[in-house]
User: Which sequence fits this backbone?
């Protein structure tokens, strides 16, 4: 089987098991919704400075939701020794990783598709900038969270305190991606600001960490 | 197998040299270097502040190289180097982060500001604390070393990206004083004091690093001995 066929099969497997259980998306959606609602009690954004804060809230909600989802994604593979079985197949580790990553990114994007309209309604916001370009920011930012998150989730899934450890690893690594994606979102909302630079930072971050994760995933799986 | 004894003789010699260097550093920083014109005496913390930052960078770079070496060779030795460098590096990073606000309050009027260098130093420190936490959480797990090595590589690669992105975000820290073009420059005596302090801190780093490295090796040897003892015990029962 070619590399891409393996990747596609992993994605399809994850989507199918999610369609049957809906455990990841349901919990993630509700959790992120709660974060948005709780934050909207704290303040009502009106000025541009507050719009910047609003974009921060949106991404913090995605980040927390993403962490809870990523943690489950490998935990699920451990039941019935599914991860063992996947590793016994001749599929390469990096194809397995890419498949898991794509599936996780799809789940998070799905949740975001529901949450973004709610966010715009709750905070009374609208895009003054180009929405199409912001969709690119959304995809790049989601990938930045998911690529490292999937990598660390595979590492921590065998540990007793995995739920605590995953955010401890993912959050500091994601600092530059978070800054870039929050600034890019604020720029898209207000229609001004250095959008292009932040997209470049995101692309660089995504490329660097996707490469590193693909190269090191096999090594990391040895330990699990 | 024989558990190797204590620390070598050269290490004790180095402790002596380091003690002398640290005293020289204090003399240079507090007496020999002239008082800065605008900031006054409080500027003297600069010699410790900058030296600890540089030493922490050196330590994290060693950690990065050791992580790469471990992934490549899988020798426990490199893992021991990596963890020792990270632990001692976090201590120097902590010194840097504590001396920073002490200096900033009288000079800038604020304890902390989210500027490029402060923020990226803080994020770097957080990354290596995460590295140590990962090791702690994964202790006794067979994956501990290889996971720590992978995270060490991820963390070090993150440092320049963090710096770049925060620099784009905002900046307030003074520009480079040592090699920042014609406008920059410090009194030669200050320059000397800084380098004496840096040398003393580097020596202190080597002392602490080697001490920690031996401890890690002894821990590994002890674990192996325990495992062997247990096997012997089981054999005898059987």
Assistant:
């Amino acid at each position: 089987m070619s590399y891409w066929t393996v990747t596609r099969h992993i994605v399809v497997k994850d989507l199918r098991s999610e369609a049957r259980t809906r455990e990841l998306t349901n919990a993630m959606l509700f959790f992120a919704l709660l974060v948005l609602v709780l934050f909207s009690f704290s303040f009502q954004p009106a000025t541009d400075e507050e719009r910047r804060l609003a974009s921060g809230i949106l991404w913090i909600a995605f980040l927390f939701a993403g962490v809870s989802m990523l943690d489950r994604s490998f935990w699920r593979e451990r039941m019935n020794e599914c991860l063992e079985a996947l590793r016994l197949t001749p599929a390469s580790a990096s194809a397995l990783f890419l498949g898991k990553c794509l599936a996780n990114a799809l789940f998070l994007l799905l949740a975001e598709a529901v949450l973004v309209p709610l966010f715009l309604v709750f905070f009374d916001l609208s895009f003054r900038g180009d929405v199409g370009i912001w969709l690119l920011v959304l995809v790049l930012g989601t990938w930045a969270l998911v690529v490292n998150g999937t990598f660390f989730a595979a590492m921590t899934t065998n540990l007793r305190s995995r739920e605590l450890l995953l955010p401890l690893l993912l959050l500091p690594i994601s600092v530059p991606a978070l800054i870039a994606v929050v600034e890019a979102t604020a720029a898209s909302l207000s229609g001004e600001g250095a959008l292009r630079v932040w997209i470049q930072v995101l692309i660089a971050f995504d490329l660097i960490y996707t490469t590193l994760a693909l190269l090191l995933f096999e090594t990391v799986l040895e330990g699990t | 197998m024989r558990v190797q004894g204590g620390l070598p003789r050269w290490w004790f010699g180095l402790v002596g040299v380091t003690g002398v260097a640290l005293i020289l550093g204090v003399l240079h920083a507090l007496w020999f270097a002239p008082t800065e014109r605008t900031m006054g005496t409080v500027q003297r913390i600069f010699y410790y502040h900058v030296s600890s930052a540089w030493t922490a960078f050196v330590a994290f770079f060693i950690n990065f190289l050791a992580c790469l070496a471990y992934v490549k060779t899988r020798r426990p030795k490199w893992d021991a180097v990596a963890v020792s460098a990270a632990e001692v590096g976090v201590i120097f990073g902590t010194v840097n982060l504590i001396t920073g606000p002490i200096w900033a309050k009288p000079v800038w009027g604020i304890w902390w500001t989210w500027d490029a260098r402060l923020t990226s130093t803080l994020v770097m420190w957080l990354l290596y604390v995460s590295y140590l936490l990962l090791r702690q959480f994964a202790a006794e797990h067979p994956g501990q070393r290889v996971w720590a090595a992978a995270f060490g590589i991820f963390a070090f690669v993150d440092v320049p990206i963090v710096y770049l992105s925060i620099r784009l975000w905002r900046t307030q820290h003074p520009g480079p004083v040592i090699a920042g073009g014609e406008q920059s420059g410090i009194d030669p005596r200050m320059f000397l004091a800084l380098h004496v302090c840096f040398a003393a801190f580097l020596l202190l780093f080597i002392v602490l690093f080697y001490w920690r490295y031996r401890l890690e090796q002894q821990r590994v040897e002890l674990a192996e001995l325990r495992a062997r003892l247990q096997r012997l015990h089981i054999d005898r029962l059987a």
